[in-house]
Amino acid sequence: MSIIGVVASATGGVEQLRQGLVVPLVDRGHQVAITLTPRAAEWLAPAERWELERITGLPVRSHPRRPDEPRPHPPIDLFVAAPASANTVAKLALGIGDNQALSILSEGLGSTPMVVFPHVNAAHARHPAWAGHLETLRAAGVVLIEWELREPREPGGRELPWARILAAVEGLGG
Ligand SMILES: Cc1cc2nc3c(=O)[nH]c(=O)nc-3n(C[C@H](O)[C@H](O)[C@H](O)COP(=O)(O)O)c2cc1C
Fold first, then answer.
1. Would you say residue 4 lies in a domain?
2. Is the pLDDT of residue 157 over 90?
3. Is the shortest distance between the CB of 9 and ligand 1 below 6 Å?
4. d(C-alpha 100, C-alpha 31), whole Å
5. Is the CB of 62 within 6 Å of ligand 1?
6. Is 94 part of a structural domain of the chain?
7. Which atom number of ligand 1 is nearest to the Cα of residue 38?
8. How many domains does the structure of the chain reveal?
9. Each residue's pLDDT tens digit, 112-124
């Protein structure tokens, strides 16, 4: 049993988080501690957030604690950031920790095993800094899950590659 820190950004498919990632991890015997970016927290319906809290038995975090408050999550053995927006990936690579999700990922980078699924399209990947961001994360030991890049506004939502993400978590010992 590992304690898995699940982090999710505001991208399409974040509504699949429970069925795609959280339930399978809990079913495999892991304790799951979820942190959302503030924007992702706005996107998830309150009932979905409560359901995630019921399943994991821990608060879903999206804001930093006050200094006099106890830490709401236990120490994390392995992080999985999925889906991670282009914005979150870029800030993680640059060491910007301007929300709770980024601060825990940044602190864990290089010392805690980490799987990241950048949920990006071809336009995000054409940004001149993008390849460098991925290289920075790879060099820090992050396992990146990449998928076929589509142009923005191509029709049809996609199931996120949960099976590959779960396999990568297992591969890191989670
Ligand atoms: C409907 C919708 C879908 C989006 N999907 C994506 C996406 O798949 N990938 C991405 O990088 N950004 C996507 N975005 C943009 C992000 O939500 C935006 O960059 C946001 O600032 C990310 O914040 P966060 O990284 O703090 O979660 C989407 C925005 C909207 C409105």
1. no
2. no
3. yes
4. 19
5. no
6. yes
7. 26
8. 1
9. 999 999 999 999 9
| Cβ 45 vs Cβ 53: under 8 Å | no
Is any ligand 1 atom within 6 A of the Cβ of residue 136? no
Shortest-distance Cα residue to atom 30 of ligand 1? 11
What number of residues does the chain have? 174
Q: pLDDT band at 169, cuts 50/70/90?
A: very high
What is the distance between the alpha carbons of residues 174 and 105, in angstroms, rounded to a whole number? 17
Edge to edge, what strands does the sheet with 78-84 contain? 31-36, 3-8, 78-84, 114-118, 143-144
Asked whether residue 46 is assigned to any structural domain, the reply reads: yes
Q: Is residue 118 part of a domain?
A: yes
Question: Is the CB of residue 11 below 6 angstroms from any atom belonging to ligand 1?
Answer: yes
Residue 174: pLDDT band by 50, 70, 90 thresholds?
confident
Domain range spanning residue 129?
13-64+73-151+158-168
Per residue, the 3-state secondary structure of 147-171, as one string, reads CCCCCCCCCCCCCCCHHHHHHHHHH
- List the CATH number of the domain containing 141: 3.40.50.1950
